[in-house]
């Protein structure tokens, strides 16, 4: 896990706490390719057993201004709050493409 105190990708990736390394790279690729994502705020990190291999992201529930998602990477899971007008299917497709482009 890397600690960052910087804001990246035109202030759309709000890194104020720790963020998983593989997840950070994937989110930077996502924001580079998508103008319809206003911001992404990474949340809590928890250690889990099933988070091995390449980064996986699952969109879970709608929130006021977008979606909550769970990223799995490096033996941990991290909440992601994604502010966007995209629907669930479009966001899942964009996240999958960003993860595969690693």
Q: What does this entry look like structurally?
A:
- The chain is an alpha+beta fold.
- The chain has one domain.
- It is 25% helix and 39% strand.
- The chain is built from 2 helices and 6 strands.
- It has helices at 21-33, 88-100; strands spanning 2-3, 18-19, 37-47, 56-63, 66-73, 76-84.
- The strands form 2 sheets. The protein has a 4-stranded antiparallel sheet with strand order 3-6-5-4, covered by helices on one side.
- A hairpin with a 2-residue loop joins strand 5 (66-73) and strand 6 (76-84).
- Helix 1 (21-33) crosses helix 2 (88-100).
- The model is unreliable at 1-9 (pLDDT under 50).
Low-confidence stretches: 1-9
- C-alpha Rg (nearest Å): 12 Å
The average pLDDT is 86
Number of domains: 1
**Strand order, biggest sheet?**
3-6-5-4
| Tally of helical runs | 2
How far apart, in Å, are the first and last alpha carbons? Answer: 17 Å
The total strand number stands at 6
Choose one word for the global shape. globular
Helix-strand category:
alpha+beta
| Biggest sheet architecture | 4 strands, antiparallel
Helix percentage range: 25-40%
Secondary-structure element series: EEHEEEEH
% residues in beta strands: 35-45%
